[in-house]
Design a protein that fits this description.
6-stranded parallel β-sheet; alpha/beta; homodimer; 4-stranded mixed β-sheet; elongated; Alpha/beta knot; 9 helices; 60s Ribosomal Protein L30, Chain: A; about 30% helix; about 240 residues
Chain lengths: ~240, ~240
Amino acid sequence: MSGLSKNKIKWIRSLQLKKNRDDLGLFLVEGEKMVAEAMRDFPDVIEEVYSTTEMNSQKFSKNVELISETELAQISTLKTPNKSLAILRKAKNKESIKSKGLILALDGVQDPGNMGTILRTADWFGIDTVVCSEDTADIYNPKVIQASMGSMLRMNVIYTSLEHYLATCELPIYGALLEGENVYHRSLEKVGVLVMGNEGKGIRSNIKPYINTPIHIPGFGKAESLNVAVATGILLSEFKRSEG
Amino acid sequence: MSGLSKNKIKWIRSLQLKKNRDDLGLFLVEGEKMVAEAMRDFPDVIEEVYSTTEMNSQKFSKNVELISETELAQISTLKTPNKSLAILRKAKNKESIKSKGLILALDGVQDPGNMGTILRTADWFGIDTVVCSEDTADIYNPKVIQASMGSMLRMNVIYTSLEHYLATCELPIYGALLEGENVYHRSLEKVGVLVMGNEGKGIRSNIKPYINTPIHIPGFGKAESLNVAVATGILLSEFKRSEG
């Protein structure tokens, strides 16, 4: 056990900030299960692995550096650190937005927990492409990664001008809007874009004109709205249920 | 502005702990919107209201105590305190479990954010009764209340031996289980119980034998599971969609 230098600890901790992740092109993945998955499925993008426990993967040829619980606590972003932490290289700019199925578009989703849960849910329903407005929560935020349960590693998530993307998009564009059609009453195309809006404000006024099919989930009780991750799950389920 | 005494601050803060909430039969509701809703809809159970801004309700006859931002920060459980805080009396033991529609049952849901989101979602779908195992997250936990967006105030939430309840229950009992039937392929009764399990472990082995209809949401991608609040939303949507 070699021990982590103060500088190393400081450097790893610096990746908790978006600015440093952007500058260095690196991000953190934590937890034994998620790190093991990354070693198995994405060995080529892993720069370093630190762990309090032995970890092996046939596909991962670099060293796993054994560290103490105390050292892990110093570099972890979690309240309850969980054995392993890896440093991964961010994907290069993925400029092309193409998918053979449904594309999810997010207009300013803010909460990292919601963002991660949305990615996990989209992955469950086989969505491979998510287009985000520039101000949507960063997928490389540790809380997003944690809530996504690793799904963010498998998905093509693009941050761009959502307005520009939708303006040039030739697919049917669905959007979750209170004034939309009852989603239970209409058929949904297999190929298209589903736009979900911000937690408090919904879909912004500059995006609304591009939505050719507004849809909504009817309410039966007194709650004023649904959580955005739950609403995304219900709508994706509606898109997929005829194939299920 | 009279100023809050140190003892008063300490007493209010003590309600952040379940033990003290249970002993005193009181709990905290925060945020201008939720406190205003409580003053409008449940004035009789409000003991005290503290606010940095004037608040009025025709139905609420007690004093709203004006406090400073600094005082609010001292009594608030929120990172970003939001104008108002109220102290409410917990409902008396609600022993009878009766509902004319679907009942939701929770077997050890742990995360307060998930618990609150589940209550908000259930309220949206018109569920009025939620039966919880004793170890399910406390509805009076400030994080549950916040995530429920006030829905917990409107619902009948009962903590009991879930096993005993299900053993004596004569309704059809559905449960979210990986080995369950594809929920898209079967018709669902309007009256019954839907059991959802713990985030990591699912439904426990002592509860499983009571489930006469295991159901599951088919996956299309690589995610191993859905978040429990998202899964609850999708299943409740399936129960309700024929009425929507």
